[in-house]
User: Fold these one by one.
Assistant:
Number 1:
Amino acid sequence: MRTQIAIVGAGPSGLLLSQLLHKQGIETVVLERRSQAYVEGRIRAGVLEQGTVELLEAAGVGDRMRREGLLHRGIELSFEGRRHRIDFDALTGGKSVMVYGQTEVTKDLNRARQAAGGQTLFEAEDVSLHDLEGAAPRLRFRHQGRDHELSCDFVAGCDGFHGVCRRSIPSEILKTYERVYPFAWLGILSDTPPVSEELIYARHDRGFALYSMRSPTRSRLYIQCSPDENLEDWPDERIWDELRLRLGGEGGEALQSGPAFEKSVTPMRSFVAEPMRFGRLFLAGDAAHIVPPTGAKGLNLAAADVRVLAGALAAHYAEGRDDLLDAYSETCLRRIWKAQRFSWWLTSLLHRFPEDSPFGKRVQLAELDYLTGSTAAATTLAENYVGLPFE
Ligand code: FAD
Ligand code: DHB
């Protein structure tokens, strides 16, 4: 088998890259370890920056998102029993975000790839990468009980944090930066009436809570918990009681409980691997970096990497230029580190840390008071949340 770009991973990064390259007339084969149903069913991100929305539209997968996605022009911050709105519209000159689940983004991309005759091989096992430093890299894998070899011009490592691509870069070349947080998020979905039109990020002495949604009738809720939390200790009523307390005030009172499904615990880490290129291998998305979910940057950063990579590959094929490919890692990392900073900052501002002192609490509350009282402070939150501009 041969293709121009071999893509490992059919998460949002791999599928979006495949679709953007297809629009440029560049051929790809996507190798995915899991089944299509598994990838499409994975409940993860829910908030798309305006730039991600525009990129999905440019990729030709914006129609259903425009119809079914929920446009949000602000968020609410809750602390000490009060709620304060951060008005993106006013603070960023009319920018907004779109609430549209990663499950839906993935479905739309799979449909588009299939309609265009794109090749995505699901349940591809034992993918390994070879000759990355030469002119003709190769991938070996097993599919439907047979061994295969795929040769290509370039490999895109879009296989997430636990994938094989980052591990294929020699350790003396790759530098990693990491912070693991001493807490996690317990998340649920529930078909209960909305308590607010916008997301509520709550700081509470018992820990962080987030009210989000997937549609006007489906809520997505999170509470801070410990990283080794046992879900069996969290019957639905305990989760609702905790949410009611932490969301506080009107949000808490309006919260109606109902059956919770898709319960999961997400550990929290910040992680960056540099450089994002080795020979003809380019890493994109979670394969190269992880952010804690506070601020919803994970999927948006993945889309931003893919945007840069698709442009650089298009310049290589159309104009024979490699300067954009050579600058890929540096271009992406500038944006990634800013999103890392924002995600770390919002996480630190809103969570309860085990070592918290009364001093730490007062500093968090002073910063929240400042954020909600100063236009300059609120603007820095708003412009990061809606997404920093592309270079
Ligand atoms: P992934 O979505 O991880 O996709 C990688 C793909 O590669 C997967 O389909 C995987 O099966 C495949 N793969 C892995 N190894 C191999 C291999 N060896 N061979 C072939 N295929 C392979 N972000 C937010 O913004 N908000 C959130 O609320 C949020 N919640 C999250 C919850 C969880 C549990 C996790 C793990 C992440 C969450 N994120 C969230 C982050 C966001 O989902 C990711 O940033 C986003 O999925 C990144 O897309 P990706 O395509 O780079 O990686
Ligand atoms: C969602 C997740 C986030 O991490 C976030 O900051 C906002 C919303 C969500 O899953 O809806």
Number 2:
Amino acid sequence: MSGLGISAPRLLLRKLHQVMAGHGDAEQRLNEIVRLIAGNMIAEVCSCYLRRAGDVLELYATEGLKKNSVHQTRLRFGEGLVGDIAARARPLNLSDAQSHPQFAYRPETGEEEYHSLLGTPILRGGRVIGVLAVQNRTRRSYTDEEVEALQTVAMVVAELVSSEQMVASTEFSDAAGNATLPHHINGRVLAEGLGAGVALLHEPRIEVVHAISSNRAMEMARLNSAVNALQSSVDKLLIATNTLFKDESKEIFEAYKMFAHDKGWLKKLQEAVNSGLTAEAAIKRVQDDTRARMKEITDPYLRERLSELDDLANRLYLHLDGRSQIDRRNLEKDTVVVARNMGAAELLDYDRRRLKAVVLAEGTRSSHVAIVARALGVPVVGQCADVRDNVEQGDLMLVDGEHGQVFLRPGDDVRQAFSRSQRQRAQQQAKYAALRDKPNISKDGVPLKLNVNAGLLIDIDHFPELGADGIGLFRTELQFMVRSQMPKVDEQTELYSRVLDKMDKKPVVFRTLDIGGDKLLPYLKTKPEENPALGWRAIRIGLDRPALLRSQLRALVQAAAGRELSLMFPMIAEVAEFQEAKLLLNKELTRAAQRKDGPPTKVNVGTMIEVPSIVWQLPHLLKEVDFISVGSNDLMQFFFAVDRGNPKVSDRYDTLSPSLLLLLRNIAEHCEQAGKPFAICGDIAGRPLEAMALLGLGYRNFSMSSETLGRVKEMALSADISKLQNFVRGLCQSRDHSVRDQLRAFARDHSIII
Ligand code: PEP
Ligand code: MG
């Protein structure tokens, strides 16, 4: 056949257009369409199945199969090859259809003579509303152009079916999606909680309402003006980034610019319009082509580039007719946002009342979006690689941010089980809330400090509800990350003052900027690094760029004028680094002493213990600091040499491994001997079993995400530390991979609630 490649289907499209505009009822026109397709694709058969109530596909028109099977042959979604195409919402291209395990023989159709089959779903508004298939007697494989062409024709059929209401819209159930089968995805918990709502694609998909153009010149003009708008918006972005963004951030925008101006890409779009498609259909067509290429490419760099092209098609679509972005601030229904990945600022764009969960194809627990989501109490499940391929806007989604599971289009059983879990969780939360005013004292009367980690003002707003003693870790970098430019000293001062004001004398430990690694500031010049976690980050940046660190210290000192200030430095690897940082602080304190407002009344200066090397200098360090706080996330990463952001290895070693416990005990022992306060503020402080072990190791001051405070408090109130102590210290000598089971058994035997 001549093929219906991107430049050749003009004739067919013109004929289809005549049919669409012509007389006759919808079924007659559908018959005419399948006849035209069969003729054009030199196929012996072309059949159109439409969706009826109850997820059934009914044969509506055929060229080639027995005519009396029309309206008789019915297949359930998932049944036979046609049902499979509908259920998966994917084209199927088979040279020997009958040998396919899904093949379901329907004698009334007479299709046993046909060997090859090419079928594609008919989609409307992202929903499968039917299947279009061609068949040939010979065993042939259909070309990519033919697959694309059939998809284009399916767009036209979709238009006919809905404009003529060939099937009542009520027959398409609302809960059914693109692929209609329930789908379950395992991911990773990035932020705890349970959330349910309808899917909203962060990167919206292109919806084609009219596939065939009635006025080619007009469609070309629409396309061209959208292209111009896209190009100028990308150019503007680049100009803005030239001053603010440097190096690798700029590269991303340069790549966008390159693609937006890419002649090949633009030519393809124009050719598609020239072939008779509307601008929307042309963009979709070219995007489908990019996606098909993406599937075959394994090279991560190239895949990334192609996915930029994919994003660009979405952006172009948004520029058609001057349409703008979806209104993220006003969502109509409870919503689950689905994205490849997103920045913290983008998350903050969404309407908080309606945003129930986020599902990411990528993302790690320590990514900005995850940290901010935890602060907001929005559950996030990440690393769901194929989520975007399986979800359609409007699909019901249940997000289990306790176990890292996502349920797409769930059946009744799953929905009921999920509602039960939500109820249980609400009861748990109520139970924790009831504990709020109880003093933080263990069962055997040991006073404890239960603090929370924070970083956004919203955290402080919620602070009074938590029953926490204070903020044990204020991650100042979050404020830097959610901005498009470096906050000035005044702005920082104002922010820190507000934190201190709102906390009303309750303790807050500010951590100085911990950027680098995966926490990149778009406006800070950094070179791409091979091992960013081991690279130029945290205090290393602060000491190499003293002006940056000093401006932050100045803001902190000014904000705390006349009151107490506690601050700590991240990633200190040797005493000399602490001394250098302290020197910068002293300069700011001297400066503040000469100012009208004066210095803070008291300054407590500490370090985080995150790099194992500093543990060997603790006797020296403890002479110089006022306190220390163990950052177990990084400490564990460096101790075991496991990248905390790499899912392949991040769980390889247990947080309850004897060697890590021994290290933590060692730190505690040094501090006890030196009489210096010590705390722990990594993720393990917020896990009841781990926190129980920490109590046994001597830790009394914990700082955790607010979400986990209730659980840890419940555990602590039920724990008899005197009994725990010997047991846990004994476990440090174990040779096992983990002592988790032993700790669980201890908790059970001693009625400790974990
Ligand atoms: C840590 O490393 O444990 C820590 C608390 O810091 P962050 O998670 O912000 O790196
Ligand atoms: Mg850290």
